[in-house]
Structure formats: structure tokens, C-alpha cells
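Lab meeting prep.
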Amino acid sequence: MGEAFFYAVLLGAALGFLYDFFRLPRLVFNDKFFFDFLFWIISAIAVYCYYLIFNSGAIRIIYFLLIFIGFLLYTFTLGYVTKSLEIKLSKKIKKQLRKMKNVSKSFKKVLQSKRKVYYNIFTRKRKSNDPVTDEQL
């Protein structure tokens, strides 16, 4: 029984780490729904597997409380420390992504300008090969 309690708290801490792991992409991409949904799916599967392993699938409120306590322990200790680091890191990543976006825009302009040059060359060749009619004179 004590072993199951320990692993419940450990599972809660692991879920706290998982939530902390998904915090960085949430901050960078501003897509809270997708990453929250993914977190809840993974955590539901993990808790279900925990119940199958330690309690033969029987649901007990005490284990939910212990998992929640483990989650809170992680969140208010290591999660508190890493949150400020992740916020700073996400700002730097956003800045780099903006730079990459600007570079890709300028590269796109270069490619479009080459396409326009090729278009003009080929359309002029085609026009020069066409016979001259009275209307063009």
C-alpha cells in the first residue's frame, strides 16, 4: 500500500514535469488548446495505467489526491523555478522565429523576382517568334 502511495505521488510529479515540458511550446506558438489537449490525453492514459497496475483498475479517491499532491509538489518547487526560465527562453525563440520569417520573406521576394525575369524573357521570345501582323504595325 505504501508503495502505491509513493508511485501515485511520483506519477503526479511526472505529470507536473510533463505540463512544464508543454509550457514552452504553449508560450512560443500561443496554441494553448492543442498542447493542453495533448497533456490531458497523455495524463489520462498514465493515470489509467497506474490504476490498472496498482489497483486492478479500481478507482480510489485517495490515489487521485496523491497524484494531485505530487503534481502540486512539482509545480510549486521545480515548476516555479523553470517557469521564469521558460518565459525568457520563449521570448528568445519567438525573436529568432521572427528573424527566420523575415529571411524567408526576403528569400521569397528573390525567388519571385527571378520568376518575373524568366517570365519576361520567355514571353519576349515568344512574341519575337510570332509573325508580325498589320494590326501590330
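Slide two material, second protein:
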Amino acid sequence: MQKVKNKKAVSKLALSGIKSNKKKYIVLVAAVILTTLLFSSLFTVGGSLIAETQISTMRQIGTTYHAGFKNLSQSEYEKVKDDPYAKNMSYCITVGYLSDDKLNKLPTEVYYAEALNAKKCFCYPEVGSLPVKENEIVTSDLVLEKLGVEAKVGSTFKINLLIDDKEIQQEFTLSGYYRGDKLAKAQTALISKDLQEKVAPVKTITFPEREDNKTAGFISVYFDFNNSFNIEDNVVDLIERTGLRNDVDYGINYAYAGYDIDPSMVIICGVMLVTFFIAGYLIIYNIFDINIVSDMQEYGLLKTIGTTGKQLKKIVMKRANVISIIGVPIGLLLGIGVGTVVLPFISDQMNTMTVGKGEVHLNIWIIIGAALFSYLTVVISALRPCRKAAKVSPIETLKYTEESGNDARRGKKITVVILSLSLALVILNSVIGLVSGFDVNEFVKSDIVGDFSIQDASLDNMAASFHETDSVDLDLMEMVQKQPGVKETGNIYVSTFWQEFSDESWNILEDNFFKEEAIKDCINSCYTSGSYDYEACMNDYRKSKTLAGNTYGMGKFATGKLSVVETIDGSDKIDWEKFNSGNYVLATRWTMDGQFFINIVEPGDKVQIRSHDPKYAEITDEPVETGSRTSYTSYENAPVKEYEVYAIVDIPIPMKYPVSEFIELNYILPENEFLLMEGDKGAMRMLVDVEDDKEESFEKWIAEYTSSEDPSMDYRSKKSVTEEYKSLSNTIGIVGIVLAVILGLIGIMNFANTMVTSIIVRSRELAMLEAVGMTGRQQRHKLMKEGFTYFLLTMIVSVVISSILSVTVIRFLAKELEMFVWRFTLLPLVCCLPIMLGLIVIIPVIAHNRLSKRSVIDRLRVE
């Protein structure tokens, strides 16, 4: 068969059809723009948030490298530096810390680092250069600000270097600086190779062979692999391949590992993506389908002159491509713009710690992904109408009208429009239903238990390397109590030494608590190394007979904030007078993710608490495996007192010491008893309740105190927490409503296009009815009834689906997001449905009025 070159003819026919029906195709281009806007805004916001989270995690870890070895000697570094499978390898050498009272809340580590290491560890100077001369230094603008040094290359300042257990004073010249992260675990200062060799020469002994826990002079090596899959396995292979010691300390960059992916959020994101795809598909498919109907006579004429079904498909797809070429780029630009506006609101609610927070992180894959999804939506939407145009015979196409289609086809068209209209209503009802359940009082109690909480600024900062636990001294307590309107105060003290057990108590613990299957599973899941399992862990426990945990001291006010699980006398409250007698202690229970609980000790058990009053401290030393000796502070001869467990309680998170272990046992003593055991010391935090009308004045006072008089202190207030979570609720509402509005526009456009095109296709039929006596008013009434049918079906579908989602998905989300309380509501539907009814009824009337401007004779002439 001779092949006919018809590409030009097909292209001309496709383009001529668009030119002759510009208004119709403008609607289709608008649909593609809206769909692309949906995808591009989703990809922009989602991709930027993922990138921001990854960058934030990397900055917390301190590097973009896949992994690294810590504390290597020179000979160990020589073993790994030339490994062919480790890419981009670089190193830094530990020197110590910058030592200055102004940096107490901003720990600053000092290293010598290679240029590549500095770049990939976020400390390469953005202004200036790396240090070369002995007296040169690079550090962050945050450190310079704290020290009162001008951020200018050439600035000079004196500061102490803390190198292991000794300090030396050094005068530095700033050779460069970089932007620091305020909440990073530590800031970094880089010195020259000459100074490093002078004050902290590279170690020739291995890390286990060191004396007195010294770290200066050891090398940390960082490297990448070919990809980020199975990083830990690759590190283990590298250790075996190079012959490094088995106990080498290595770190994995979990920004790549994806350890913190929440499966529920993955499901939610997947559902949102599918929702967007369906929304785009519904409008584009329906408009394509309607346009095929209105163009059917054109295709019939083409078929009568010999155009094949395959060529008709090409014409339709050519038009789809032209529409995409116009609509997709515009939608991309609009979507990126919408994403850029919305992103900062969402980013502000995320607990990310990164420079450039809230900025758009665009890359070619985001743009390609959004464009591809949009184009695929157009192609998939056009395929079915293509097949319909190709299959209809020439005679059928010449007589084809909307009414000539069978009921199944009309039913599908109605279904598509109903789903499109309902989708917007369902999402709007779901979002507002969730946001309307915002109850700050439900959530504030998990973040603050009084009107105010006063503590050291480092205490609740999880990025801080040290948490100050006794900064609320007697002077501050007295100042707070003298402030107008203060009703009650409660001090919380803490001792972070582990809990000890007698032989008898330990045997009971092992026979009961440690025999629980949940505990065995917990230990096995925490220790995944093949050489260290449940039994190995238990052997270590048996040797020490200790459990991780803290001992708290609390007064009556703070004790009243505890959640009582069970008491020795069966009450659900703590008798303060009895508890304060000095013979009792409260104990916490073990929990897995706050959902599964097991008592470690029981009410009525006898437990022992050792005093850690500094007056009993003794410096002692003992040999270590390497043959050297190490010194430490011992309380072995301090007195031990026995207490009876009065109650099992849960300590609210805002009252706890922020560092915890996977298995820990906490005790709570009355305040006075705690101070007798531990000696006079400051409180970890102070809870304050203030009269309502005095809260504002108290907050002004404490804000001034913590910013001017003692900047090392910080506070949280119920007001600040309330505003924080109201902001989150508003963000969810804004994003949800914007999404619902976009989907609503799609639904209305879908309905409008359906009705308008239907009226155009049926114009000859309507003209005939008018010719035989049907008035324009009767025709409008008929069309309004059709529109009302759409409304009625939309209302039923919206109410049913919204109700199902409310009692399932929204209820689940409200449970997961603690600041929300689930409440069943259909109020958004009640408000929106009348508006939709008006549009659904008015649109056909407007379309009919426009059509009726042409005479009956003109309309009857249309074939």
C-alpha cells in the first residue's frame, strides 16, 4: 500500500478547527491552565518543603555528606583515604571550643577543615576566605554578633580556646564568615593548619587508647557513595574492606535515609495527588468529550471525503497538543507563583532549622514533573473522545446530536459533572470541618501546663548540646512571686542520675517488667546489631542494676499538674499531706509512643534513691581496657534512702527534662525532700499562674527580664502557644480553602461548559420546538429544570461523601493533630449549596438568552 504524506494536511485541519471555534478552545485552554496550576503549585510547595526539610536535617547533622568516620588517628585515616568506592572524601581535625561567657548559649566548635569539607559542612566562608595564617579564623555571623565583633574581614578579637582540659588565649583576625543557623546544634569556627598543628597535633594513637577522654587532634573523615541507597551497608563494607577497627564511630546522614517518613502523611499526600489528578481529568475529559460532540459533524464531513479514523485521532491529539503548548506554560507560571505565596505560610509552621526558611526550592524535576502530570492528564482525557470520533460512521456523524447518544453516554456525562461539582464541596466541607474543630485548650496542655513557664533558654532547645537544669535561682523565684497578679508558682527540680536497685528489687523488676514481650521487642528494635540483642542488653543491665531516668522535685502546685494513673490507696488524686511526709515517692511508667503503657514498679513497692549532693562527691579513677586510667566523679559513699511508691503518674511533656531514653524510670519527690537529698540548687523550671487581667503586664515584665536583665533565661506563655497554633490552624484553613476554590472553579467551569455546549448542540432542536409554539420562557424553564437535576444530584453526592469522610478521614486527622477536636459538621455545605444552586440555575438561562438572539430561521438552517 502506498504511504500518503498527510502530516501537513492533518496539522492544517487541526489548526483550522481551533481558529474557527476560538471561544470553545479558550475554555479548554483555561481548563488546562487550571489543571497545570493545581499540579505546579502542589509540586512547588511539596518539592520545596521536602527540600527544606532535607536541608534542615542536613544542617542539624552538620553536613551534606552521606556518612563519615569520627575520631580517627593518622594511620587510620591513611587506610581509608584512597578507597575507590568512597567519593568526595575530605576531613577535619578536632581542636576544641571557643570559650567565652557570651557563648554559653551558643556552643562553638573549633576545627581545621579542608575546603571541600567546609563547603559540604555549611561553614565555608560566604564572605572572605579560609584561614591561612596562624592567627586567622572563620566563624558564623551569629558567633560574631554574640562576641560583639563586627562581621567584616580583617576584624580582630581575643578569645580563649578550650582544648580538652586546658584554655589558651589567642588573638584572631577574621579572614571570613558565613551565615549561621540559630538553632543548629553548634556553630563552627575554622582555624589554620599551622595553629591546629601547634595546639592540637594529629593523634598517632587510636581513640580507645586515649587518656582522660581527650578528643583534640583526632580526624573526622566524611565521604559520599555513588548513591544514597543502603548507606549503612556501604559504610560497614568500607570498614571491612579497609581493615578499620570494628568499634569505629561512624555516622549516617539520615536526611538521605528517610527514617522519619510518616506513613500516614505519605498516604495523605498520595490521596491529595490522586484528588488533583481526578479533578484535572474530570474537567478536561468532559470538555474534550463535549467538544467532540459539537465537532461531530465536522468529523463526519471529513470521513465522507476519505479521512480515516486514525487520521481523526491525530487531528484530535494535535489539537490537544496545541492546547497543552499554550495552557501548560501559563499554568506552570501561575502555579509557581501561587506556591511561592503559599509556601512561607506553611513553612512557618514546620519545625525546620535552616537558612532561607520558606524560600522556593525550584529544580528542573519539579517543573518537568508538573508539566508532565498536566500533559498526561490532557492526553488521557483526550484518548476516550478520540476513540469516539474515530468509531462513528460518516452517516451517523452527519446526524449526530447530543440527544442521539444513548442513555449510558449521557449518564457518564452527568456523572462526570456531578463528581466535578461535588469534589470542591467535599474538600471545602472537610477542610472547614477540620479547622472548625481547632481547640487550643486541648493542645496547650500538651505544650504548657501553667500560664507561664520560666526556664533556661537551652533547656527546651533540642539542638543545644547542653541543657541547663538549675538556672531558676532563689532571687528569680522571689522576683516572680512579687509581681502583681501572681496567684501560684511551682518549682520543678531535677537530678539526672540513673535509678539504682538492690539485688532483691532488681530480681522483681527482671521477673516482671523485663519479661513483657513489648519490652523485648523494644530492646530488639533499638539494638539491631547482630552481636547485641536482648540477652546481651540484659547482661549489661544485670551488671549495673540501674535504669535510665531522672529524679524530680516538685511542690504542691506542680504535683497537681501530674496525671495520676493509680495510687496506693486506690484514689485518682494525690493526698499532698501524705505525700509530703518524706516517706513516699511517685514513679512514672514505661510507654511506647504514648499509646502502650507498662508499670515498671507498682504502688507499694520499696525503691532506693541515692543522694547526689555535691558534698558527697568524690573524684576516683579506675583502669580501662587499654591499660590507662580514667577519672570520674563518684557518689558511691553518698547516703541512700528507701521510699515507698505512693502512685504511678505521667509527667506532662512541658514539665519534663527534654532528654529521654527508650526505657527510663522517673521518680518525683516532694520539693523539700528533694532539696534535702540533693542539696540547695536552682530549679529546672518554674510554673506560674497569673490572674487573667494581669497576664499582659506579667508577660511584658518577664519578656523584658529575659531579653535585658538575664538573656540566658527564656519563658513560654499560654498566649504565645495559643497564637502559634492558631497560626497553624489558619494556615491549614487558607490552603484548604484556596484548594477548594480552585476545584470549585473547575466544577463550575465543567458545568457551564457542559450546559453551554449542550445548548449549542441542541440549538436546532430548540429552534424547532420554538417554531411549533414553545415559548422562550418554557425553554428556559426546561433548561433550569435540567440544571436543578444537576444540583439535586450534586447535593446528595456531596452530603453522602462529606459525611463518610468526616467520620473516617477527618476524624483520624483530628486525632493525629492534637490541637483539633473532631466535630461532625455539614455547615459549609449548607452555606455553599444555595450559591451553587443559583449558579447552576442562572448559567443555562444566560446561555439560552445569548443563543436566542439569533432568529429561529437562522437556527433551523444549522446542520
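Talking points for slide two:
The longest strand covers residues 87-99.
The chain has a mean pLDDT of 79.
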